Amino acid sequence: MLRGMGRRPGAKSPAPTTRLPLVHLASDRPRGVVAAHLRAGRWQKVGYGTYLPVDATPDPAAFDARTLALARVAGVARRLRAPVVFSHVSAALLWGLPLLRTPAHVHVMHPSRASARSDGAIVRHTARLDDDDVRSVAGVRVTSLERTLLDCAAMLAPVAGLVVADAALAAGADPEDVARRAHDAHRARHAVRMRAVVAYADPGAESPYETVSRFVVLRDGLPLPQTQVPVRTHLGTVWSDWGWAEFAVLAEYDGEGKYRGAESATFMAEKRRHDALQEAGQRVVRVVSADLGGSALSARILPLLPASVQRSVRPRPDLLS
Question: What segments bear the compositional bias annotation Basic residues (predicted)?
Fold first, then answer.
């Protein structure tokens, strides 16, 4: 874990949700009132018996997927009477961590899977929680950053788990506590996957797609890259997303919207930055979303590495599950 050089100066960290969306419950209103609000377009159904008011928003589509998911959490928090703790990807949402896919279900730690008012929108987990595993975020109980990281690393596919793990470490999860728990979790479900994600997690990633691009080369067996690589240039210290300082190979992720609507000065500043890295002897690989499927990115980078490294490359099986 944590081969990176640490956080880039000025890098932003994920911040927890401060307030859940206001929702209405069908159980609090006569059936006719609920139907009237829906017909008038004033409410939007977001979950079992849960409605989000949209009359104050000109365009209901303005609610993004994370807002809708948090509204479902708010509805479950109000509907369930049993003491629950929001967990897994629902906890990640509450902590403000990025997710590759916004969850359609609400995950909770619950004393029992059985419930007289069970509904398919809730996923119940019965694992034991220690007092240190529980925190309060936005007025509801939620698993700690460390426990959320481990639960997501075990439940999600490795690439999705690494996105959560990188962000949780950047948000302040204790790396030593995480590493100790992962090491001790011999009997946990998907323990091998969880330990692999923890082993490669790095707080230096500043976006989900920086994590995904790094995951591709990790999965394909390239050497462990370093995040936030500092390079001394004539412009001063320039930080690259990730790469190998020892091989003078860097990777820069360019999202589709990075330059959309940018003024020419912004574009030229990025070009100067790119040129400065090259003039400092670095070989810079620009990564776009099309590079993230399959092994195209690894195939582009591999010829830039020493021949001895190329011969030793083998896929990492613990990241293939």
Answer: 1-10
161 neighbors 169 (Cβ within 8 angstroms) = no
Strands of the chain, DSSP E: 24-25, 43-47, 50-53, 85-86, 106-109, 122-125, 134-137, 140-143, 226-233, 236-244, 249-253, 283-287
Tokens describing residue 69:
């998911």
Give the domains, in start order, of the chain with CATH numbers. Answer: 24-200 (no CATH), 208-319 (3.40.960)
Structure-token pair, residue 117? 């008012």
Q: Which two tokens stand for residue 105?
A: 């279900």
Reduce the DSSP state of residue 232 to 3 states and report it.
Answer: strand
C-alpha span between 266 and 284 (Å, rounded): 19
The pLDDT tens digits of the residues spanning 212-230 come to 999 999 999 999 999 999 9
Bridge pairing between strands 50-53 and 24-25: antiparallel
Closest to 235 measured CA to CA, from 284, 269, 185: 269
- Cβ atoms of residues 123 and 107 within 8 Å: yes
Q: Of the candidates 123, 105, 103, 121, which has an alpha carbon nearest to the alpha carbon of residue 113?
A: 123
> Are the C-beta atoms of 253 and 290 separated by less than 8 Å?
no
Phi and psi for 305 in degrees, rounded to 5? -90, 155
The verdict on pTM exceeding 0.70 is yes
Q: What does the DSSP 8-state code read for residue 255?
A: -
The helix/strand/coil state of 156 is coil
